[in-house]
Design a protein that fits this description.
By secondary structure, the protein is mainly alpha-helical. The chain contains 16 helices and no strands. It has one domain (37-310). Helix content is 70%, strand content 0%. α2 (37-50) crosses α15.
């Protein structure tokens, strides 16, 4: 006796039905599974590494999109810092007379603006990276960390161009850094990179739920700019505050330490002219401590990101 019709498995009638049948046979894979702090960190790093080619594509896409339909291309990455350099040089250096007390003021300002540009681009682009890629987040699964990390990659590309121009400027000015102070440069770079990445991871996740975060970030960056010795020398801060608790509070800012470290490495005139340039004692130790703290904060930021990413698609 033939089996009832409802007992006979339905045969696929189209290619789509055939594909659906094949997909239904695949094993289920867990996505955004809650894990412990340490095991979750290892899993996240492995996931990002498995998608490293996609991360590279995102970085290239961001760079190409930034200069799309542009005649000058990457040259525009120099226009903004050079414009800022000219403004600060004439407004603060010449009009307010700061340049008279700061040797090689143009090099000094360019060093600070180069470091500051790297930090602000990582934080600003990273904060909006998840929201700006909402279409991908909602349609396919991939480690969400690659979006803020893609912003980091784009910022590093611009930094490399600006830093190269800075070195050329020191060469033209016959102040190319060759001494042992140059060892401060990689340490300063790592401090900026680690803190910028930590903030990008944390803020990109929070911005999905609280869209006002990106506006708060803009205001905070303005305050932080003037709280760092970018367009004025730390010597002025030391003369005003002395060795007080306020000066130690000022030096607790890791961005300040990174800017000072890069100035000591690249701004040759600041290390050879006395007593116009003053450097905080134990600058290398301060930067090393800041770097260790920054690595811990980056780890915590990634764990917060991992806990929040589960509802990204629903919120977007």
């Amino acid at each position: 006796m033939p089996a009832p019709d409802d007992c006979v498995p339905a045969m696929p009638t189209s290619a789509r039905d055939q594909r659906a049948l094949e997909i239904s046979k695949l094993p289920l894979a867990s996505v955004s599974e809650k894990q412990g702090f340490f095991s979750g960190t290892r899993a996240s790093i492995a996931d990002v590494w498995a998608h490293r080619e996609l991360l590279g594509l995102l970085v290239r896409r961001e760079i190409k999109a930034r200069y799309k339909d542009s005649s000058l291309g990457v040259i525009w990455s120099l226009v903004r810092p050079l414009a800022q350099l000219l403004i600060y040089y004439f407004a603060i250096g010449e009009i307010l007379g700061v340049a008279r007390n700061v040797p090689s003021f143009a090099i000094f300002v360019f060093v600070g603006l180069t470091m500051w540009g790297l930090f602000t681009e990582i934080v600003s682009s990273g904060t909006s990276s998840i929201v700006n890629n909402a279409g991908l987040v909602k349609k396919v699964y991939l480690p969400r960390e690659i979006f803020p990390l893609g912003s980091v990659g784009g910022a590093l590309f611009n930094f490399a161009i600006q830093f190269g121009i800075l070195l050329v400027a020191t060469l033209v000015a016959q102040q190319f850094p060759l001494g042992t102070d140059l060892l401060y440069a990689p340490l300063a770079f790592l401090v900026i990179l680690v803190y910028g990445t930590a903030l990008a991871l944390f803020l990109s996740a929070v911005n999905v739920y609280l869209r006002d975060i990106q506006h708060v970030v803009e205001v905070a960056l303005i305050i932080l700019f003037w709280a760092s010795p970018i367009v004025y020398s730390f010597t002025f801060v030391h003369d005003l505050l002395g060795n007080s608790a306020l000066e130690q509070l000022y030096l607790s800012n890791p961005i300040t330490l990174a800017v000072l470290g890069m100035q000591k490495a690249i701004w040759v005139a600041g290390s050879t002219v006395e007593p116009l340039a003053y450097w905080p004692p134990d600058l290398a130790i301060r930067m090393s401590v800041a770097l260790v703290i920054g690595i811990v904060l980056a780890w915590l930021a990634q764990r917060v990101f991992a806990r929040l990413q589960g509802n990204f698609a629903q919120e977007l």
